[in-house]
Fold this protein.
Amino acid sequence: MNRKISFGTGLLLILLVIITGCSSGDGKSTTYNFKQGIAEPTVEFVRNAPPDKIYPLSNFKIIAQVHNQAAYDVQDVTLQLVGLVASYFDVVPTVQSVNPLLGRSAMSPDGDSAYVEFDGRSGQLFQNAEYYTGNFATELSYRSGMEFADTICINPSLYEVYDSGCTVQPKKSYSGQGAPLAVTAMEEVVYPGTGAEIEFRFTMQNRGQGTVGTVMLKSATLGGEALDCFFQGTGLERNRIEFKDQRSPVTLLCRKSYLRDLNSYMTSLTAQFEYNYTLLEKRTLTLVK
């Protein structure tokens, strides 16, 4: 009798383990957050398009796959071939538009891709030359967005450090938001007293392989309420800035006056940006006898 009970109990435990394992594997409530780290659109040539060797007076194709690996949609996309010598490699046209590409998300984890075809014809080698190597570049240009979002602690009264609420983190760092343009750090500064004011100092950097153009702040909120923001070092258009030095960070300052709560509390901090980007990559074509 005891053996039967032990066997039955053991079998029941095994079944529970199997059921638990299945339910935890298939019923995951969490999804991957694509809006983290650094990611950007890429350009890759299809195999044999162009071929490794191109012969004189022959037709050839250049087929490029544009793959949006960022977490945001890209628009106004163009792909251009820059620096080809037409007497050796005549490609017309050298620039083509690409339809908007969706970014990576739970519904589209790989992101959108598009194939761009260029038709070319080779010329003659110069005199007795055995081969000619043509250096050129692909230039991918697009417009995209980037979103920053975090939950932070606000403490309007610096004198009440321990109020059984949350603990302020004066400075936080970030790996990125799923784009080449990234908020890499944020400082929180509270000016206490009557009508306490808070200031956020966002550090933004180009962490991609290309060049950032104009960056525009579209909105910034604290707990759903708008913040007053401006890029440090800008003129009248305080909500936009040109990335002149690609490897130097820029600073965005955002402020909010008259914090209402006296005790510390958790709330959301968000910022939405739009920017232009250009990715220039070196390539080669080889003309042989």
Observations:
- The chain has two domains: 42-143+278-288, 146-275.
- Residues 42-143+278-288 form a domain with the Immunoglobulin-like fold (CATH 2.60.40.10).
- The longest helix spans residues 2-26.
